[in-house]
Amino acid sequence: MQSTIVMVNLFGAVALLLFGLSLVKEGVTRAFGSRLRAGLARGTNGSLRAFVTGLIATLALQSSTATALMTASFVEKGLVRSRMAQIVLLGANIGTAMTAWIVAIGIGWLSPLFILAGVMMHRMSRSSARQGAGFALVGIGLMLLSLELLGTATEPMRESQALAAFLGMLDNAWPVALLFSAGLAFASSSSLAMVMLVLSLSSAGVLSPGLTVALVLGANLGGAIPPVIATLPAAPGARRVTIGNLIVRGIGCLIALPLAGLNADILQGLPLPRQNLPVDVHLLFNLVVALIAWPFAGLLSRMMSRLVPDEEVSETGPRYLDDAALDTPVMALSGATREVLRVGDVIEGMLLRASAAFNKNDMSELGDIGTMEKQVDLLQQEVKIFLSRLGRHGLNEEDGRRSIVIIDYAINLEHMGDIIEKGLCEQIRKKVTNGLKFSDDGYQELKNLFDLTLDNLRIAQTIFVSRNADLARHLIEVKVDVRHMEKRSAERHLERLRDGLLESLQTSSLHLDMLRDLKRVNAHIASVAYPIVEESGLLTESRLRPQA
């Protein structure tokens, strides 16, 4: 009976830790999700920036798996190079290890304060971002509380003869211990949870130093498996990133395992708290792996390209419109949604290339935009035909509304493609061909609007899937900000003209035309939010103020 109570307490504490981790991830995603994704996409221009970006993103999300999946999706879209993605994941692994080390330094007494502050922030705020931050604070508090409960739950294990016998067998078979720990980390989808469990057992005095190291190595190996499983249906580019990370960790474990006893003795000889040996090993292992693997990131990327070759698939035609799903509206609408999200990804690629051409004065960046625009036209037409055929099967009211929303968003994306190809790209070509140069202020105003447009498109993609009313309302508010930005920029441009600034005189029509086109793109982006806000009863029929 006593052993049953101990196991229930132990598993309950681990479950609380996993729940706290999920709250932190959900809260940070709600509060800063679009900024984190944008930062991760942009922060990979150099090796050091990529490494730091991965580390910071993991510290914020408390999940190297989430960072790995975001990075893999960016590689799939062509936003991040494969070599940089491998370096991002090296930073993410250290971010997880730093989280374990911070949680273990003895700040458990702060858990009630974090929980109280988080609950108050969530209940007293109507802002989605602040509510998300409240969720994250509650999650941190629960993580700290779970560590205290883990310590309490493992105390009775000192006298357990059965546990001593089991650990004695593992102590004589470190490879088995590593695989056992990897299996638990994979089952919980969290290397951090496994390391915290090892920390509690180690503090209870039931683990030898060598076995502690072996179990921590297993937690690192097991933590790299969930991203690989999650990206199995994805494109080869995404799979290469996660499999490469697993290979790096696997090689690191193979090298470190025979030295487990020696490494434990060296660490114990340092002026560090002995009870924190697991988190010290966790951090040291990932630091050493990062230092060794960093210079070979390019070689690893090339090796993964040969190991996971590109598939021969149609890059332009529809992928998710399955005629067999027409008899099941839910599946058909899901496929159409995925296809339209793919159209949004193509539009994002067009915007990124146009922005790069504008910033670098490089016409080659515009080379693929015509082909991409034709793909957008084709896909949105296929989606409309597919959903029109679905409508003949008789949809209920909710599915009918969803079908209309999908078609409307596809049409708006197609309009964005036209504006980018026939408007923005033509203006950028004139700028590059004629050797024109914007004034510093004018260039910065247009660059800021380009960046905001990209961020808004990513938010719109999220809204299209999640139908989050708070995000939808935020996007409509941002549309007003865009209108004000466009108006202020036009006014400042006219002031520069009156001052006789040469660059403004030469680029006057280009500046105003690009402002107009970016404003039009943002108007189409915001369209995805209106049906959701209208359903929430937050949208009036007219923006005109009532007469007195």
DSSP summary, beta strand count: 0
The overall average pLDDT, rounded, is 80
Low-confidence segments, given as residue ranges, are none
Distance between the termini: 77 Å
Describe the structure.
This protein has 23 helices and no strands. The protein has 548 residues and is an all-alpha fold. Helix 4 packs across helix 15 and helix 5 runs antiparallel to helix 6 (128-154). It is elongated. The chain starts with a helix and ends in a 13-residue tail after the last helix.
What is the structure about, briefly put?
This protein is mostly helical.
Main features:
elongated; mainly alpha; 0% strand; 548 residues; single chain
Which helices and strands, and how do they pair?
Elements: H1 2-42, H2 47-61, H3 64-77, H4 82-103, H5 111-124, H6 128-154, H7 161-171, H8 174-188, H9 191-203, H10 209-223, H11 225-230, H12 236-256, H13 260-269, H14 277-293, H15 297-307, H16 329-360, H17 369-391, H18 397-433, H19 440-466, H20 469-498, H21 502-506, H22 508-526, H23 530-535
Helix pairs in contact: 1-2, 1-3, 1-6, 2-4, 3-4, 3-12, 4-9, 4-12, 4-14, 4-15, 5-6, 6-9, 8-9, 8-10, 9-10, 9-14, 10-12, 10-13, 10-14, 12-15, 16-17, 16-18, 16-19, 17-18, 18-22, 19-20, 19-22, 20-22
